[in-house]
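Researcher: Here's a chain I'd like modeled. Treat it as a single chain, no partners, no ligands.
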Amino acid sequence: MFHDPDFQPFEPRAEPSLRAYVRNYLENFPPEAYREGVAGFKRLNRPETLFLTDPDLIEEVLTTRAEFFPRDRITPQALSNVVDPQGLFLAKGAHWRWQRRAAAPAFRHENLLALTPIFFDCAERQAQSWRRAGTARIDVAQAMMGVAFDVILRAVIGDAEAVDRDRFLAAETDAFSGFSWQFLLAALGLPKFVPHPGFLKMHLATRYLRRETARLIAARGGADKGGDILSLLIKARDPETGRAMNDRELLANLFTFISAGHETAATALAWTLWLVAKDQATQERLRAEIREVAGDGPIGRDEIEGLVFTRRVLQESMRLFSPVGAISRQPRDATILGGRPVEKGAQVVIAIWALHRNEKLWPDPLGFDPERFAPDAAKARHRYAYLPFGGGPRICIGMSFAMLEMTTVLATLVRACVFKTVEGFKPDLQPNISNRPRRGLPLIVSPA
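Model: Modeled as a single isolated chain. Structure tokens:
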């Protein structure tokens, strides 16, 4: 078990703050959410906001009574300026169900295993670049954005030169940087077109991103290029009705897979590298496993299953620094949840950040210990105590893609390089679409 005060990058607020909504909404998760299973607050005459960290109640909301607790009003409104509601991420009801059925075959395990050479090659290019540079200070958050985006270009679109990478990544940052302001407007019941800092930049960036995504689809012209995800989506049909995605649905889903897909994986990888830089013993054990399993050769489908400790490191990293901080739902009507009355219109927040640090669920929750995910420990834990990819019917469709990608990338980088922390650096969070570090994550990177 490794401890460091930097693993707690902020203190929860006893009272919610409007400023925290914009700067770091995770600060508004009440202290009780880290100790109990339900916490809440009520502001003026608005319905109560509940924060759930009780796995049984989370399972009830996300699975057992999923139809009664649909997506909340606030999050879709906050994202709808950037993310098209016609896609899987924001679609509702029957419209979501048929798209999910149609897209699911693209993410079958055998299809994803075929992509592991791409994952390895993208990571190996980065590793070799670092090795050529010798010992250097590197912002691994920025670097992982580049690696994960290269993976998306090749594995999802099938073309490494499809877009201007730097421009696309900068536009994504501008587009999603307005999420906190949009969330605050939605929470206050204000229209999404009310101007706020970065409003024009957000809209111009979104327009560029959608135009580029549409161009990618048009350039494909319906052609099947093989096993990339775009080819599989173009061919996708609902097995019950035979329905295919129209142009708008295809555009919405491709945009989501490009943007959210690489954003969350890159964020998780960056935090993982920072954590193993903090804990050199874990880094050495990780490197030893990788060399035992793969030697100096490529890391592919035959090696990936043997990287047991590597996966545990990733899982523990995503517990301490979950890529996404929360999931929100709203009841269709007044109800009872865990013996507690819940008003119609109440905001029910699955507080993932606090859930993963809850004292009742995780012994020594602020310690870094990959052995929490050893088989016996994982089996003894409630399955809704750990939700880095969400849970229930709407669990992230790209979960297996992300785990294979991150395992391959982490193993490739740690085998090639040694990571150490920068003296005096303190991390700060800037949650938007993912829990990004505000000022990056600088590390000292040297050839192994």
